[in-house]
Amino acid sequence: MAFVVTENCILCKYTTCVEVCPVDCFYEGPNFLVINPDECIDCALCEPECPAKAIYSENEIPQNQKKFIELNSELSYIWPNINKKKDQLKYAEKWDGILGKIKFLEK
Ligand code: SF4
Ligand code: F3S
């Protein structure tokens, strides 16, 4: 079991989540972060830190976000690690809560 970053992170990328992860298992793409499921120790510390409420436990993930389980796994082996907070994306507040952002996911 692992935690999963879901759609509402896209185009927001607040990165507050990475500061609390004890095993540094976040990986960064251009406009999205993912969690490596093999490294995540299921501690749940990151979930309340995300202002966009984009992080879920794999067993509580909404039905329409299930594709993100596979995406986190796949992309975490391609993207570089991130363990320091950086500025959120420029229009993060505008994009927060917008549905259908998966079409803007940059790999
Ligand atoms: Fe890191 Fe814990 Fe979040 Fe997993 S649940 S990504 S180990 S902070
Ligand atoms: Fe994304 Fe939330 Fe982390 S928006 S970068 S999962 S704090």
UniProtKB/TrEMBL annotation:
It holds the Pfam family DUF3470. Residues 1-30, 31-60 form the 4Fe-4S ferredoxin-type domain. InterPro entries: 4Fe4S_Fe-S-bd, 4Fe4S_Fe_S_CS, 7Fe_ferredoxin, Fd_C, FdxA, RnfB_subfamily. The keyword Repeat applies. Keywords: 3Fe-4S, 4Fe-4S, Electron transport, Iron, Iron-sulfur, Metal-binding, Repeat, Transport. Its cofactor is [3Fe-4S] cluster; [4Fe-4S] cluster. Ferredoxins are iron-sulfur proteins that transfer electrons in a wide variety of metabolic reactions. This is Ferredoxin. It comes from Candidatus Johnevansia muelleri.
